[in-house]
Amino acid sequence: MVNESYHHENLKSELIKNGLKLLDEEGYENFSMRKVAKACGVSHTAPYRHFRNKDDLIIAITLKAEHKFNSSLQEAINRYPNDIKSQIKEMGYTYVKFFVENPEYLRLLFRSDLKKHLNNENCEILKDKVQPFGTFYNTIVRYQSENQSNDAGSITDLNALVLACWGLVHGIAVLISTKDFVYEGDYLELTRKILWSETFL
């Protein structure tokens, strides 16, 4: 017997939570509102009280993931309010930690083909709401503006600096979360050692 006792907002949260798990397991083609409803223990019509269709639910799942990711990056920045260099290092560590602890988010945001299936309107919604990458980018912009240097070895091109920082932490996150890099010790401590060394920034 289906459970219709969810509070209005609780059901919406459960649909997003279980929807993420199903989307990760099933992929876009096999994902359906009916399956999400079953996972939540409600009638197959209940999800439509909150979402028009499966694409609408997928957008909500993606925005929830980006909001959670962005919040973790912002918390990292807030730990060092007066030290932009430490902000970037801590943000990089948090970037890796977030995806290592939530590999389903890594697959959702970077390794899925959702944009191929979503219509242009939905793709624009996602494009306009990309908060975490704006947070990452803007922090590096502030770092560069505050640390202009004439050293020959410094990176003065903003795009090059963003790519170097993002490429490093994203690459580490992927290698650890997919277990392609085998290491007997603590992966996150190793990551912190790399990012807090003098060779990074």
CATH topology of the largest domain: Tetracycline Repressor, domain 2
Radius of gyration, Cα only, in angstroms?
A: 20 Å
- Which runs of at least 5 residues are low in confidence (pLDDT < 50)? none
Structural class by sheet pairing and helices:
mainly alpha
The total count of helices amounts to: 10
Structure description:
Helix 4 packs antiparallel against helix 8. The chain has two domains: about 50 residues, Arc Repressor Mutant, subunit A, CATH 1.10.10; about 130 residues, Tetracycline Repressor, domain 2 (Orthogonal Bundle), CATH 1.10.357. The model has no long low-confidence stretch (mean pLDDT about 85). About 70% of the residues lie in helices and about 0% in strands. It starts with 7 loop residues before the first helix and ends in a 6-residue tail after the last helix. It has ten helices and no strands. It has about 200 residues and is mostly helical.
Describe this structure in a few short sentences.
This protein has 201 residues and is an all-alpha fold. The protein has ten helices and no strands.
Essential attributes:
single chain; 201 residues; mainly alpha; Arc Repressor Mutant, subunit A; Tetracycline Repressor, domain 2; 10 helices; elongated
Write the layout of secondary structure elements.
Layout (H helix, E strand, L loop, with lengths): L7 H23 L2 H8 L13 H25 L5 H18 L1 H9 L2 H4 L2 H9 L2 H16 L11 H20 L9 H9 L6
